Each structure stands twice: as structure tokens, then as C-alpha cells.
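Hi, here's the filled form for the chain we discussed.

Project: internal
Contact: R.S.
Residues: 134
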Amino acid sequence: MPEEREPEPRQLSTSGRDPAIRVVLQPKDTNNQGTVFGGIILSYIDLAGAVEVTKHTRQRIVTAGIKEVNFLAPVYIGEVVSFYTKTLRVGRTSITVKVDVESTRGHEAVHVTSAELTFVCIDEQGQPTSIVTY
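And the returned structure, exactly as it came back:
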């Protein structure tokens, strides 16, 4: 009798990318409709963007701006949410990062939203300073 093999897990749409961060959202993160607050997702987008910036510099940074964010799908309690990042531009004092957010629903990756963030390197006085890369 041939040996039974376990089925291969389905590939998600992550295209081999590693997320900057991955979280499981809890009941405290939800509204009365049972979906995760958009502000919770935004805070993780900001954190993921900051993680991407650390690939370029260890300087003190602040979030200068987030372009328009449209939520395309809800996130539910217990889903694993992945935040994928990519550096778009490194300027003299700022770094622009794109963050794609996907939620794992069963064996499927659901695109939740994307955002473009600009971070500025600052000195001890809180003033913009030139980026020192390593």
C-alpha cells in the first residue's frame, strides 16, 4: 500500500517576501462590529515602516506623513496580519516607505490596505538632520 502524504500547504500571495512585522489581533483591538479598528492597523503600519527605515539608519526618526489610506477589506479577531515593507526613496533627511497589509483568512491572503509613509531623521533638538547610512 502506498504511503499517504500530507497535502502541501497553499501558497499565500506573499511572493516569497518576509513581513517587517506580523501580528495576531485580539478582542481589545475591535469595534462593536467585531472588526479591528482602522487606527490599530495604522499604528502597525507606522511601526512596520519604522522597521524598514532601520535597514538604512539607526538615527532617531519621526513619522512626517502618511499618504491616503483606504481600507479594502476588514480584519477580524484572531487573523494573522502581515505588514510588508519596501523602501521607495532615500533622500537627504527623509526616507519614504511603502507598507502593504495582508490578513490571513483561512488559507487565503486578503489585501487589507497599502500606505506610503515618509520618515524624517532628527537630531537631539528635534530638527531634521542628514541621514547617515550604514
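Let me know if anything looks off before we file it.
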